[in-house]
Write a structure and sequence with these properties.
Layout (H helix, E strand, L loop, with lengths): L2 E5 L3 E18 L2 E2 L5 E4 L4 E20 L8 H15 L6 E6 L6 H14 L4 E5 L12 E7 L13 E4 L9 H15 L5 E5 L6 H15 L3 E6 L5 H7 L5 E6 L9 H17 L2 E8 L4 E3 L7 E3 L9 E7 L2 E6 L7 H23 L5 H6 L8 H10 L10 E5 L6 E6 L5 E11 L4 E8 L10 E9 L5 E4 L6
Parallel strand pairs: 6-10, 6-11, 7-10, 11-12, 14-22, 17-18
Antiparallel strand pairs: 1-5, 2-3, 2-4, 2-5, 7-8, 8-9, 13-21, 15-16, 16-17, 19-20, 19-22, 20-21, 22-23
């Protein structure tokens, strides 16, 4: 049973806990509660309640805090008014606002508050959640887009309309994909919304942070950039952005915000996965390796051939492309890696020799049949493989040796032929003999699995409960 209390001044509720309004009037992030409304505050979160009228509430769990200062800086409300004024002016395109700032400064809180206020004014609000590590709208590892038509207590209650798969919990190694994803979703929301508010990750320091944020600003061409800070930790962004014509506002972070622990961040990611799964239909897919386009992996990017022609019988799959020579083994072959690489390198050198001989007009048919390397190959296969090396030197092609279970449990994005994200999944198994990829997928209810044309291979490893259990190294496999 909860505790019934009377509140006559603004307060915070630290999760995990809940609050039910019995009498009076309360506001949460610009959303006015109705009598009987129950607000759930998850673990790792703090919700601010502004008392509009002396209220009676029932609190269960959590911790109520009565701060000595205002819940939100007055500067926030000044900028809210500026946005509303700009939206009141006749425009031919949506008003675009980008939020920048380190972690735990209130970027998503600002967006939620602004969304609720703007919806009250009758504006259609678009939100892009590009914080792939702490996603509010879509599952982790996704840049998501949503349309807000009515007030909401929490961005996690909002349905994802558009998504772009990154497949990792932080941008380094995926800067270009992060920029492309935000741009693509903005293009969709711009056709529908009056204003688009864009949340970003907390990556603000170092070269990658500056490159990512500055490139986003340049490609999105916003009308306003808001920098949220506890001190002056984003001074470098303020100096770099001052040369642009758009408005830049530096706003203080709410004092009540505290850092989210690593444990709570992992917990919140798990909750974000489960929330998305609960809204989706779960299906077991069997995708044909020959029919599907694979992204973010060397697998499926070249020409496969029978491995027994040159490798020991524990090699299950061989594939050659200009970007790499992939060798899949039945087991962990790390102890044999040196020998396998030597065999692969000799094969590449021989292929290059064949290609050069063909281009010189020499007759290679007899030598190929007598060759201990090529005698087991069809003529056309040799010629096709040799052409891969036409513009490449053998030592320029990396040799990648992986066990056959390497791809298991990887987080994947399921995409149609137009680049639209249809759902996400966990890659369960690849049968290299039958060329079948098995995926446990979470799809929107209206999605036909036959529309899946692209499988984007991510970097997180998940178990059957969609919990993170590991990570794939960027650039491997």
């Amino acid at each position: 049973m909860g505790e019934e209390i009377i509140v006559d001044r603004s307060f915070l509720l630290k999760g995990e806990g809940s609050l039910e309004l019995l009498d009076g009037a309360l506001e949460v992030f610009g959303y006015t509660l109705s009598l009987g409304d129950k607000v759930m505050v998850p673990r790792g979160k703090i919700f601010p309640f502004i008392v509009l009228e002396r209220a009676k509430v029932v609190v269960e769990g959590g911790k109520i805090i009565f701060p000595e200062h205002e819940l939100f800086p007055r500067e926030w409300f000044e900028v809210f008014d500026v946005i509303k004024k700009k939206l009141g002016e006749k425009r031919g395109k949506p008003f675009i606002v980008i939020l920048l700032g380190f972690v735990d400064v209130g970027k998503s809180s600002f967006i939620l508050y602004a969304s609720n206020l703007l919806v009250k004014e009758g504006f259609k609000v678009g939100i892009i959640d590009a914080d792939i590590g702490q996603s509010k709208i879509g599952p982790p590892g996704i840049i998501s887009g949503a349309i807000i038509a009515e007030g909401t207590l929490d961005l996690s209650n909002v349905q994802m309309e558009y998504g772009f798969f990154i497949g990792d919990k932080s941008p380094p190694g995926h800067l270009l994909q992060c920029i492309v994803g935000v741009r693509k979703i903005l293009d969709k929301l711009a056709e529908i919304c009056d204003v688009v508010l864009i949340d970003t990750t907390g990556l603000v320091f170092g070269g990658p942070g500056m490159a990512l944020k500055l490139s986003k600003v340049e490609i999105l061409n916003p009308d306003m950039v808001i920098i949220l800070e506890k001190g002056r930790e984003c001074e470098h962004f303020a100096k770099v952005l001052r040369g642009f014509n758009f408005n830049v506002f530096r706003l203080p972070s709410p004092r009540y915000l505290v850092g989210t622990s690593r444990t709570d961040r992992i917990f919140l990611r798990d909750i974000a996965f489960k929330r998305f799964i609960d809204r989706s239909k779960i299906v077991e897919l069997e995708l044909k390796l020959d029919d599907i386009s694979l992204h973010n992996t060397i697998l499926g990017s070249g020409i496969s051939f029978e491995p027994s022609n040159i490798f020991p019988n524990y090699v299950r799959w061989t594939e050659l492309s200009p970007n790499g020579f992939l060798v899949i083994t039945k087991r962990d072959a790390s102890s044999d890696a040196s020998e396998l690489k030597n065999v692969a390198r000799r094969f590449l050198v021989s292929l290059k020799s064949v290609n050069m001989a063909i281009r010189m007009g020499l007759d290679v048919e007899k030598k190929l049949k007598e060759s201990p390397i090529f005698s087991g190959f069809e003529r056309d296969t040799i010629f096709t493989l040799s052409n891969i090396l036409m513009r490449r030197k053998p030592d320029e092609i990396p040799i990648v040796i992986l066990p056959e279970n390497y791809y298991e449990n990887l987080y994947v994005g399921l995409v149609d032929g137009d680049g639209n994200l249809l759902g996400v999944g966990v890659l369960k198994n690849i049968d290299f003999k039958s060329k079948i990829i098995k995926v446990k997928a979470a799809l929107r209810a209206d999605i036909n699995a036959n529309d899946i044309k692209i499988l984007k291979v991510g970097y997180l490893r998940l178990n059957d409960n969609w919990e993170e259990i590991g990570r794939r190294k960027i650039g491997l496999g």
